[in-house]
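Good morning C.,

I know you're traveling, so I'll keep this short. The sequence:
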Amino acid sequence: MKKMTCEMCNSIDIIKDGDFYVCQACGTKYTVEAAKKLMIEGTVDVKGTVKIDNSAFIEKYLDNARRALSKEDWEEVEKYYNMVEQNVPNNMEAVFFSAYGKAMLSLSDSEFYKRQQKFKVLEKSISVINDYYEVTKENKETVLRNIAAAIQKMYTLKFVCNYSTGKYAVGSQYWQIGLFNLTRQAFITELDQILEKHDYSYIREIKAQLTPTKKMAVMLRPVFTARMTARRSGRFADTATSILTGAGMAEPLSVHIIR
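The tokens, ready to paste straight into the viewer:
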């Protein structure tokens, strides 16, 4: 097996990051030339690229990412799926869930415009699923079902919103439901594009689970009232907020898109 060993900590968990090779255990960085000297056995191709079999570490990252996902540890979800995304091209699971973890983490933050940006990144990550579907080596049905389940789960999560704004203003509960709906619609669009080439029953089934079947009111219930403090002109001012959770996902919710 062709491996490199870090001269600082003896770890073999070394991956390429930009123009450097970085030890994941201690953070030591190596140039390409320095990385060549770390090789225990094997060769380097004529372009100077160090070839490393890191499949075992990819599996470890995936295991860690999926475990974090099951625990709703969004920071770790983003961290480990991002590692997979950097090392495995065209991976639908990694590209979606690395952005998904970051977006879900933002639900507990009162910086609403930053949250909006993270949901836009999530939409962009969804927009490549159709292309990745054609070339990925993943279990496609399992991944698409897991993505659909994650999108449905969004509606059951608690999030910070601002009662002091208008009903559909940035930061309101309906604004947040709008972000959820835009995410869901982006995924439905990708499923439609896949169906144009592959008329598989499981894809139609997944789409049906996400597509509204009838008009439903979005029921939101306060879980508890929190107090945010915001510094204004050198003084602290209190703004009433609530953590809310979406209800009624026994059936798909009707679309409430903020325009």
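Safe travels,
E.
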